[in-house]
Model the fold of this input.
Amino acid sequence: MTPVLIAIAALLGLAAVFGAVLGFASEKFKVEGDPIVDQIDDLLPQTQCGQCGHPGCRPYAEAIAEGEEHNRCPPGGQDTVDSLTDLLGRDAMTVDDDGAEDAEVNKVAYIREDECIGCTKCIQACPVDAIVGAAKLMHTVIVDECTGCDLCVEPCPVDCIDMLEVKPTLQTWGWNRPAGIGQRPDSRIEVVNL
Amino acid sequence: MTEYVLILISAVLVNNFVLVQFLGLCPFMGVSNKVETAMGMSLATTFVLTLSSVLSYLTWAYILVPFHLEYLRTISFILVIAVAVQFTEMFVKKASPVLYRVLGVFLPLITSNCAVLGVALLNVRQDDATFMSSLTYGFGAALGFSLVLVLFAAMRERIAVADVPEAFRGPSIGLITAGLMSLAFMGFSGLIKL
Done:
């Protein structure tokens, strides 16, 4: 009988000590949170998926409180965006499925050549001379030169220019630069393939 | 001194917890998509593993052994680990909000990391375990975990853009890579005989 009692007493004692330590710690290390952040955090779905570009729901709630747009949460859907709109008194928005990802995607212009009428307007608009062609002849884009700046899309009278996504390959992939002053989403450290 | 160096090398390379003993595979596969998150997870795990290894040794040596309660080791170690993680989270939240944001959701996840319990249990299985040896063992295990997690994450970032056959995309190629890494770590076996 005694060993059982000792075992129970030991575990209870252990649990009591740990409980006391945690209770003490929760008082001692209490953090006065920003109440608005808590309210925003309550509305987020707590999936911690990171699709908003933050490492979890809480950091995103803090970012919203500091002014970031509140429509970057695909798991929450339109309902979450609407309730956040009510809470914050901001303009209504639609949910943005790929906002955070979109900024980092490289794009390149592509001219649908059989629709091109050869007006040369895109050639004049291109700031890096990446479009070749002559009047009344079809134009095309030099992929290596194109910076994906979008400026040629607007002038085209027949809308035959598409911006295509460029998926990174092993040759173009590079490490993200560490966050810091002057960081742009597209700045990457060139990879050297041995 | 040599003894501790040997324990360290043994825990990091020869008996690596992830690739040789196959413990802690869940975070190894789960948080290795990006190097940044892998670093965060490594930091949090290193801290908790070392702390819980020492604490569970103390519980073992000063509570369980004197009362002949060795059979209660699993449940009491789980208790110790849970408390260590909780306390760490509270402390970090108060002491360093920046670090808390980096570690974020990873801290609570460590409670269920089986490598942490594995280290505590393997520690007391050795007859001549001392305070210093369990400290070294826990720290070494954490270093080994961090090493392979960061290596694996770096590889997976590249594999994500590589031309992998459709059927092997995602976790499949990840598991194959982990298997190859495990084979590579087999090369360390026999380096140290403890």
Residues 99-103 of chain A have pLDDT under 50 and may be disordered. Residues 105 and 165 of chain A are 7 Å apart (CA to CA). The interface with chain B takes residues 3, 6-7, 10-11, 14-15, 18, 21-22, 25-26, 28-31, 48, 55-56, 58-59, 167-170, 173, 175-176 of chain A (CB under 8 Å). The radius of gyration of chain A is 28 Å.
